[in-house]
Amino acid sequence: MSETLIEARGLSAGYGKMSVVREVDLHVDAGEVVALIGANGAGKTTTLLTLAGALPPLEGEVWFLGASTRAPMHRRCRDGLGYVTEERSVIMDMSVANNLKVAGVSPSVAFEYFPVLERIMNRRAGLCSGGEQRMLSLARALARHPKVLLADELSLGLAPIIVTNLLNAVRAAADNDGIGVLLVEQHVRQALGIADRVYVMQRGRIALSGTCDEVTRQLDKIEAAYLSGRGSPLEPDETAETP
After folding, report:
1. Residue 114 sits in which domain range?
2. Contact by Cβ (8 Å): 173, 147
3. What is the rounded CA–CA span in Å between residue 104 and residue 98?
């Protein structure tokens, strides 16, 4: 049985006293990629921020590495959490090489994930393309060998070939290093291509969950809910799970 690395139990979270996420149950095990998909404003980023420790739960619990936690984000990162936000979190005035150095990352390990970084090591990060910046930010996270990676919209605004490279790196990290990954991704079909399981979030709640094969059987409905955020709650088929 796989080890559960991070888990939300009855989690409600938001900003101030307003709940954006309500009664969410989800978990990520070692060596698996879990996709969290849903419409814009469904609560995906709020869920990641709460799992990371940047937001406190309003109700429920976050479990990290087998224990309930309310530790701040920096402590969770020290204990094995990696978090790649939807912004390209690189230091724009520094070279690629110095970005890796500041993160305490070996260039050779970063190159294993993204060989293209080797030829731009002396380039200032602010002069790199959006795809190169995204590869740099993901390389910085993965090369620190986290136990859990939370990744928010890796593909935002990028060309399909770059998206493929990013998602393949995430899959390789799960397979080769046993990292548990929770992935928020706008490219639903590509996410389903590399994920093991899927949670579909709708209006702050988990509307549907299952393996990729199970969820793919309702892909048209899922995409409609993801793209528009309108319509009735998704109806599960015989194999997909409802919470």
Report:
1. 89-145
2. no
3. 10
